[in-house]
Write a structure and sequence with these properties.
Blueprint: H1 2-25, H2 29-55, H3 59-62, H4 64-88, E1 91-94, H5 100-112, H6 114-127, H7 143-162, H8 169-186, H9 192-198, H10 202-224, E2 228-231, E3 240-241, E4 244-245, H11 251-273, H12 280-293
Antiparallel strand pairs: 1-2, 3-4
Helix pairs in contact: 1-2, 2-5, 2-6, 2-10, 4-5, 6-10, 7-8, 8-11, 10-11
């Protein structure tokens, strides 16, 4: 039964992308307004189906309740960055629906797809064995260094709020990495520092690559949409691929790393509130390290 359900939503996901692309090509403005959340919903469903076919389990099919939680967390996390954008003013939206209820529905739906897209792409790369032989020399930061890194992250997060500048985009996209990653490590949550300690790199590289893949798709699909975002990035802003200045693509891998770290912190908090909670995504990512250590 589960196989049939997954196959159905996988086909629905693929058809959603194809039909939305065709409708947009023929100038359907309704699809143009809703294009971004439509194609990303289709992408998430289709990729989840591919993962299930490869592994016999997937985020949606195996841990649907957690997936629903992630949708809401994705909205909340992205609103944090929208808040920072009030200070750095690096992007804004155009051709938004005039009706506020419709507009905020579009916001919610679009923002809800961001973290699932990253995580599903990461799972897909892992399922097909990308970077499963990636090793480095074991590396561990001492406690004092980790505290120093947290302090740097805190400065990065506070500075754009205290002094508004469009040039602070790089520290917005790295602040949570520096601040939360040591905290996750100290609290024994999902952590890239654990991987470096064990000399494994697959989890880091699959997230890094997921950021690049999703970043390119975000900008590709956004470029053709009617309701879309545009950038006012101060760094070589005239040299663009689609809507994004070329230099901006460096932010997507960092953002994917940041997504995992922020979600790992959320999982730690949820587990404190509900000790029985087990995160499929964090557990799956942690198993990458375990598989390296047992081979």
């Amino acid at each position: 039964m589960k196989d049939k359900i997954v196959k159905i939503y996988g086909v629905v996901g693929l058809l959603t992308i194809i039909i939305a692309e065709i409708a947009l090509f023929y100038g359907n403005q309704i699809i143009g307004v809703w294009f971004t959340p439509l194609v990303w919903t289709g992408y998430i469903l289709f990729v989840d189906c591919l993962i299930y076919r490869k592994k016999g389990k997937s985020f949606i099919s195996t841990h649907f309740a957690e997936f629903v939680i992630l949708l809401f967390l994705s909205v909340g996390f992205w609103l944090i960055f929208e808040g920072y954008n009030l200070f750095i003013k690096n992007w804004h939206y155009i051709n938004l629906p005039e009706n506020l209820a419709v507009r905020y529905t579009g916001y919610f739906w679009s923002f809800a797809t961001i973290y699932p897209a990253i995580f599903e792409t990461r799972d897909l790369l892992e399922a097909y064995g990308f970077f499963d032989k990636a090793y480095v020399s074991k590396f561990e930061l001492g406690k004092k260094w980790l505290i120093a890194v947290m302090f740097i992250g805190l400065v990065f997060l506070i500075l754009p709020i205290v002094k508004h500048s469009e040039y602070f985009a790089p520290i917005v996209w790295t602040g949570f990495i520096f601040f939360l990653e040591p905290l996750n490590y100290f609290l024994n949550g999902g952590s890239f520092l654990k991987d470096l300690k064990n000399g494994t790199m697959q989890k880091i590289l699959t997230h890094f690559s997921a950021g690049i893949i999703c970043g390119i798709l975000w900008e590709f699909w956004n470029y053709w949409a009617y309701t879309k975002w545009v950038y006012t990035v101060p760094f070589w802003g005239d040299v663009k691929i689609f809507e994004m200045p070329v230099i901006g693509y460096l932010g997507f891998p960092a953002f994917a790393i940041e997504c995992y770290i922020m979600y790992s912190t959320a999982v730690i908090i949820i587990k404190k509130l509900n000790p029985k909670f087990e995160s499929y995504f964090i557990k799956t990512a942690e198993n990458i390290t375990i598989s390296h250590l047992t081979t």
